[in-house]
């Protein structure tokens, strides 16, 4: 144990940097993914049929593809097209596109679960469509979509570890590098695993608290 | 009747509406004068609720015209063709009428006050304080002055429906549409809602009502319209409609409604 603690102390800064990058990547992906998902979800419900098609295809493709394949695609395809993305940028792009499809789909479900009388009541008092969306439909949909949204956040944090495959120095890659120096394989993998677990438990707790606050009306 | 009342506030001409192949309104003509209370009765499927929803532009219609306060609503002409108006125009025209629904349709994430304030703030563009005062005033008038901050799930059906009435009336609409507003209520809660309607009718609101409460219809209405199979079959003052002289079909309908 002492030996492990000594090695941990030596490796504290690389690991801490990796941890921060994991958090940073995840936050960036969930923020971008939520923006994409909002557009996708609203379009899937309200856009004219033909305009909906590209969003349907996007969601199906993203949900049917393994995250690792998305990450490799985001890493290699832009290079072929002459775009230069850093490994981190490519990774965030892949995770954001993945999250966008999932969040779009869960927002669609939530919007469609709102009774049609809600939109009619909003229309009846003279709200325009954007006002109806902003003040009647989205507030209700967001409440419903919040628990699965938190879940997507947890998936992203775990999924960010796959970015180690394209050389992004996040927590898992840093851990592997440390193991490469001290060969304490099990100890450091367990340590990294606990770090992921800790973040996800915190996130989950936040989600449950918000859920309870909002109540089940 | 004063001179101002000579022109109808609402004029429906030859209204036709189909859902797919099923024609539910087959040419309806109806005029409502300012401050008049008109009640539409008829068996379910006669098209009375659809008529109300067309007036509030919640339904599209294929033929005829609806003129509200001199303005043709819902449709315009572009290049010689009949065209549904754009969202912003429809919204502006919908705000001229208020509608109360059978199933209340209160916004569950907003308090009673919030429900009434939303239209005042976003559609009437009132300042927050002004909207709050007016909303509280209306909730007071429907007897819910002590329930301003309750959300719909904390209110009884009758209370929810009274909030919905306040929400519609606070917008100061030219015409109020009431669509079977007591049908979803427990029997003991019906009267508290109807008494609110009696009061706003007495205050001079123009009401177009669909109801199954025959006693209420008789008492509150200036005119009764009996609809059957998508057409107006008979209309007249309550004394006439509920009196002895009437068609066999109307007589049968009234008998079945327990009148």
Please provide a written account of the structure.
The complex is a heterodimer of chains A (217) and B (259). With 217 residues, chain A is an all-alpha fold. Helix content of chain A is 84%, strand content 0%. Chain A is built from nine helices and no strands. In chain A, helix 6 (116-124) packs across helix 7 and helix 8 (171-182) packs antiparallel against helix 9 (185-214). The longest helix of chain A is centred in the N-terminal third of the chain and has 35 residues, at 12-46. Chain A is elongated and about 70 Å long. Chain B has 259 residues and is an alpha/beta fold. Chain B has one domain: P-loop containing nucleotide triphosphate hydrolases (Rossmann fold, 3-Layer(aba) Sandwich), CATH 3.40.50. Helix content of chain B is 35%, strand content 26%. Chain B contains nine helices and twelve strands. Chain B has helices spanning 48-55, 87-94, 112-122, 128-141, 157-169, 187-202, 214-220, 238-241, 248-256, and strands spanning 10-19, 22-32, 37-41, 63-68, 71-72, 75-78, 81-84, 97-100, 175-179, 207-210, 223-228, 231-236. In chain B, the strands form three sheets. In chain B, strands 8-9-10-3-11-12 form a six-stranded mixed sheet, with helices on both faces. Chain B has a four-stranded antiparallel sheet with strand order 2-1-4-5, covered by helices on one side. The longest helix of chain B has 16 residues, at 187-202. Chain B is globular. The two termini of chain B are 30 Å apart. The A-B interface holds A 115, 117-118, 120-129, 131, 135-136, 139-140, 143, 217 and B 56-58, 87-88, 91-92, 94-95, 97-99, 101, 103, 105-109, 118-119, 122-123, 151, 153, 164, 167-168, 171.
